[in-house]
Structures are given as C-alpha cells and as structure tokens.
Amino acid sequence: MNRDLRRDLYAAAAAALLVVAAAVVGTGIQHRDGSLRVAWPPLLATWDPHLGPGTPAAVAVAVAVVAHGPALAARLPWRPLLFAVWGSAMAWTWSLALVDGWHLGVAGRLTTRNEYLRVIGRFHDIPGTLRDFTHHILIDSPGNWPAHVAGHPAGATVTFVLLDRVGLGGGAWAGAFVITAGTTAAAAVLVAVRALADERLARRAAPFLVLAPGAVWMGASADAWFTAVAAWALALLALAATGHHPAPIGFASGLLFGLACYLSYGLTLIAVLAAAVLLLGSHRTRPLPFLLAGLAVVPAVFTALGFNWWEAYRLLVTRYYQGAGGVRPYGYWVWANLACTVFVVGPATAAGLRRVRVPRTDRAPFRLAVLVTAALLALLLADLSGMSKAETERIWLPFAMWLLACCAFLPRPRAWLAAQAALALLVNHLLLTGW
User: How many CB atoms are located within 10 Å of the residue 385 CB?
Assistant: First the structure.
C-alpha cells in the first residue's frame, strides 16, 4: 500500500471516528436530558431496519455506477454526460426514497405537520398572505406557521403554492418535483467545475456526484430544490465569469441567486462560493452589472408584494430559540454537525479533502481546490452561527454538493464509489430518516 493511499484511508477513518464520537456522546446526552431533540444522534432519525420496493433498484443503480460510471464519464460526449449524470442521480435518489415506500418515502414527505403543503389553503390571496406573513412566525402568535414555513423566507412556501395553482397539488407532485429538480444539482456542479478548472476533473467527479450519500435526504426534501437553485446560480455565474455570454447568463445567475435567498435564509452564505467563482473567472468583472441587475429582481417582487425579508429573519431568530434551537446545546452540535456532514458526503470526500492542498503551479487542481475550500468555509460559517444545530444532513445539502467535487482527486474511483454507495444503502435501510 503506497503512502498516499494510506493517508486517504486515515482521513476516511478519522471521519468515521468523528461519527462514532458524535453517536456515543450524543446518545449519552440525549438519554440524560433529551436536549438534543433527535432520536438517533447525530442524525434526525430512528432505528428501523427495513427493506422496501426501492431496494432492488437502489442496489442495481449502485452496482452499475460503481462498475461502469468512471469509464462512461471519461468517454461520453460532454452534453450527453450531463444528461446521464442527471438521469443516474435521479434514479439513485428515487430508488433510495422508495426504500421507505411510496407514501412514507415520497408522497407523504412534504405533507407532515411541519411542512409547506399544510398551509397551501392559507395562500388563496398570495399578496395578502405575504403582507401578513411575519405576523405568524413566532410560536405564540395567532395561527403560527409550521416549523419549516416559519423557518424559511416566503419563497419556499410560494413554490408549492404555485405548483398547486398549475394543477400539480398534493404530496406526490411535490415529492416528484423536488427529486426531479434537485438532482439537476449534480449536473450544475459539473458545469461549474469544467468552466473553472477543467473537463478532466469534472469527468472524474461525475460518478461521485451521482452516488452522493446525501441523496438519502434529497428525496423527497424541499432542500433538494433549494440545492438545485443555488447550484445553477453558481454554475451560470461560472460560465459568465469565464466569458460565456456574460450579459444574459450573468443576469440569469443573478435571478437564481435572488431566488435562493428567498428560499432559505442560510443560502445567503452561498455568497462565499460566488466570490470564489468570480475570483477564478477570467472575465470576473464583465458579468457583474448583469449579475446585480438579476439579483435585484426577486427581492423587488417579494418586497412589492408585501414580504419583508429582514423582519421575517429577525422574527425567525426569536422563533428558533423558542423551539428546539433554544434547547439544543451548541457545545455538542458545533462539532456533531460535521459528523452529520460525513453522512452526506461520505468517506470518499474525507479522503478527497485530504488531497485538496495542491501546488498553485498545478492550475486546474488548484482552481478546484479553491472552489471546494469556499464550500467548506461557507459550511463552517453556517456551523459557527449557531443557527444550524442539528438536521444539517438536510440543511447543508447546498454546500455539501460542492465538497463532493474533491473526489476527482482520488485514484481507484471504483473502490471509493463502492464505499459511498454502501454508506447510503446502510443509512437508508437501517434508519428511518426525518424530513
């Protein structure tokens, strides 16, 4: 065994030890006083070994990607590769979701008491409801919003209101939408890596973006939709910043950045990644005016309709500490959140992150390392903020997707892909995950 491989295994083992420590310490805290508010620390999950209709498909997809993914990623033409990655990621995510069955895994996910679909009927007058939105955020306010509605800007709920208005109402359509849209994030990351680093590294990362362990939480969670919007905002910015039609593509990127900030307050931290993209771009100033023009559109629309983002966020902070956020101990979650991230990105990413330190003279790997480091920095800022105590296996998906790109640095991709798939299959079959 060569020294580099041994160090990769050490990195993966360190990540596994972090998970074990979080599980052991967390179980002790939870049994002592229940303050973690999760049943299977550090994840929001319960122990429930089970099989389901998605099991054969999930195993088949995993075997196919491990066996043929690296070779196909190396030789497929670029555009067909993007569609193949999207289709494969969708097959992986759908099959994992269906391990829990159709209702529990897909159709019922977004209809539970904390979810967006429970309030669709209160948006019969969208402008009126947006003007009144902040009056229902606090727990002690009349008709307070469910946790996820109160915990996100109004754009998150309006997404599902609009789906309902066009005839795609109910949990089944909502689940199908978030899985179908969310899995495009894998292709978006490839587009950005190719534009900012090179195509070879993007192709090497492709199978790892397909077999992401985070697919367990992508299906069917609204955070999958948030992940895709943020990923395409960055991908389009990468294209614009490298000279690809900076005016229209920069404007479209700005539109998506604005939308992302009205889907999740935490996605304001995607600005860290955006700054890295602009830094790496060869035409970094040309798209800026168009980016800023696009960025203003969604906030202007929501403000005109009566939604006050800043007031809503201020009240959300109070609501957060009125609920579980006020009980969950920061001293545990500030490091246990990182253990949650290990479940999302897998052992291969831990090994890939070890290889991120590369000489600046090696241009493409250095540029990919900057992008991955920016994603890691955004994730750490979210962690230190104290507004992400637990449930980060879902909340941090928009940042975690970019960490997976560092798997392009790994030799022996099939062995690492097998480890990624095994982790996802074990989690999905041994635990019943929340959200």
Answer: 12
